[in-house]
Each structure stands twice: as structure tokens, then as C-alpha cells.
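Moderator note: this is an archived Q&A kept for reference. The question asked for a predicted structure of one protein chain; the sequence and the answer are reproduced below.
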Amino acid sequence: METVIHVVIYVFAVLFAFLAVGLLLGFHRSRHPGMLVMAVIYIAAAGAAVGYVQWWPLVAGLILTWAVRLMGLEPHVERDP
């Protein structure tokens, strides 16, 4: 059972790393500081989860990213009416 949990942690850490790369590419295009902050949070959470092989850094990274979004550091997206 323990190895299944480790695989799940690694899979989510890789997903967080892909999110971070996507945010870094978006930051390179838009230069919005919130995207850089969220990318750093995601990659730090993924690194900590892999380093400690624990699930809580992923949850902490997700909560911190949502806090950054709630503070208004998410880029504005134009929507059609």
C-alpha cells in the first residue's frame, strides 16, 4: 500500500511541475508577476513532495496558490459577453 501512495505523490508532483512550466511560459509572454509567484509555489511544492515523499506539500502548494489568486495576482482574462 505504501508504494501506491508514493506513485500517487510522484504523479501529482509531475503534474504540479507541468503547471509550473506552463505558468513560467505564460510569465515569459505576459510578464505578469502573479504567474511567476504561482509557478514558484507549484515547483516548490512539487520539489518538497518528491524530497519528503509526503502528500502535505502538494496540499500546501495548492492552498498557497489559491491564496495568491484570491489576493488578485491572477492575470485578468477577457471573456466574450
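Archived answer notes: DSSP finds three helices and no strands in the chain.
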